[in-house]
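Might you be able to consider the sequence and fold that I enclose below?
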Amino acid sequence: MTSALTETGVCNMALDILHEGPILSIEDDEPNARRFKRNFDALRDAFLAAHPWNFAVSRANLAASADAPFFGWDHKYLLPGDCLRLLPLKEGGLFDGANIAHEVENGYILTDAPAPLKIRYVRRVAELGLWSPLAVTAFASFLAANLAHAVTGKASYAQFASGRFDNELKRARRIDGLQGSLERADTNDVIAVRG
């Protein structure tokens, strides 16, 4: 699903939403290009971490660290370097496996579960050509919403971009969620909701 989509192209999609002229490159030394360059990576990672996008979910088998936690847990596992968000920890890494008690602390997973620890996580995907088309349009709206006031100087454009982002995000999440099986609720999850 790769395409020639670039950071500059996504920034220009955001500028189109704001009714602003395009930039030639995110590397240019002009105000809007500098704003987008300065914020792009952080906003991309925040956008990705907010939802388990199918294109960004990855799996790993983690070896236990040689150093055990000082107290509370038997093992600790270093999170992968591209991990933006750990998804629910399940026995065997299975979609419908039982929940595994754990904490995430300082880049490590602390748990009593033995190695190897199978995890699913949302990873950093810098290559925009790997993204789903709806995620790209939602991300362009997210950029517009976050930079609208700085780019346009108008609060009304910030409100408009924020509303557009909400709509684009709902649509992208809904379509993304339709791919694959729905996760079954764990009995403990149902009890927690009722309690």
The chain has five helices and six strands. Residues 63 and 116 are 5 Å apart (CA to CA). Helices lie at 7-17, 31-49, 133-152, 155-177, 187-194. The two ends are 44 Å apart (CA to CA).
